[in-house]
Design a protein that fits this description.
Elements (H helix, E strand, L loop, with lengths): L1 H40 L6 H25 L4 E6 L10 E6 L5 H10 L6 E3 L1 E2 L8 H7 L4 E2 L4 H6 L2 H15 L6 E5 L8 H7 L12 H10 L5 E8 L7 H5 L5 E9 L14 H32 L1
Parallel strand pairs: 1-8, 2-6, 2-7, 3-6, 4-5
Antiparallel strand pairs: 7-8
């Protein structure tokens, strides 16, 4: 009898894993080809209608993932807070910052945003273009894809720095033809205790933020967006792996969204060449990150009290 009880959870996990894997794979092969086919027509002529159709197809793909979350992971409990002053619309234009702990973060963002915000895009590496379906879909859907160069490469060829900035500008400006959410993980990498210690981060729950990407996005889009949104994700039982999430090992996820007021002096500054502006901008981001660190602490305490 005890052997049967031991095997049952394992069999459930295997069944859940096979179901999730089969559905996501099938959905990707169903939704992917139309996006790619329509994307090829843009080589001949750009079309807003094609862009809108591709976004609808992508949202359909995301809705399948969300259906899985709601029906295959029934024990997962959400604690979602949208703070007063933040109004979201499917027709809005948003810049979004978020803490980064796991590959699950993007799935959380998509789950939350599907019916509340325009399709979320984020900066990706140009090298991802070579991943079948995924890389081409990123390009077609308007994800800013960056050819990032190392400091050593730029030192040898300073022109690369200007080229990187121009590519970033074009990528951001292309979003303006439609509603968008542009996500920036300011930490630049996933949080781990090892990275936290190595950085000697001044924050308890966060790595040091990299302000340059946000400065660039605000410089290009700041006066054209409806809000700068800060998303905070807390996994009260520890940051999960992607497999852990889909196998039903995650019981609770808390999400907080708040609107960040953008000071007038932020817009129009030159982060790269103006040292005084750069220092002031970094101090502003540090203050935001300190508030976020304190928010995570409060969220964890409130979740612990509910447990």
């Amino acid at each position: 009898m005890s052997s049967q009880n031991t095997k049952q959870p394992i069999l459930k996990k295997i069944s859940r894993g096979l179901t999730v894997g089969s559905v996501i794979t099938g959905s990707t092969f169903f939704h992917g080809p139309p996006v790619l086919a329509l994307g090829l027509t843009k080589l001949i002529k750009k079309s807003r209608k094609v862009d809108e159709t591709n976004i609808k197809i992508t949202n359909s793909w995301l809705s399948v993932n969300n259906w899985l979350i709601e029906h295959i992971l029934p024990n997962l409990k959400w604690d979602i807070t949208i703070e007063e002053g933040l109004e979201l619309s499917m027709q809005g234009r948003y810049l979004m910052t978020c803490n980064h702990q796991s590959w699950v973060d993007t799935t959380v963002n998509q789950y939350f945003g599907l019916t509340r915000m325009p399709l979320t895009r984020f900066f990706t590496k140009w090298e991802l273009i070579f991943i079948p379906f995924v890389g081409q879909a990123f390009k077609i859907l308007g994800f800013p894809m960056m050819k990032r160069h190392s400091k050593e490469q730029i030192a040898k060829n300073p022109e690369l720095k200007t080229r990187d900035m121009e590519e970033s500008r074009k990528a951001c400006e292309q979003l303006l033809s439609q509603p968008f959410t542009l996500l920036n993980y300011l930490e630049g990498t996933r949080f781990t205790p090892e990275k936290h210690a190595q950085q000697q981060s001044p924050y308890k729950h966060l790595l040091k933020p990299k302000a340059g990407g946000l400065a660039l996005a605000l410089n290009i889009l700041g006066d054209k967006i409806d809000a700068l949104v800060d998303m905070t994700i807390v996994y009260p039982d520890g940051a999960p792996g992607y497999g852990d999430f889909w196998l039903g090992e995650v019981n609770r996820i808390a999400v907080n969204l708040r609107k960040i007021e953008i000071p007038g002096w932020v817009l129009g500054g030159n982060y790269e060449d103006d040292a005084e502006y750069r220092e002031r901008f970094q101090q502003w981001v540090h203050a935001l990150w300190t508030e976020k660190d304190q928010l995570i602490e409060r969220m964890q305490q409130e979740l612990a009290a509910k447990a």
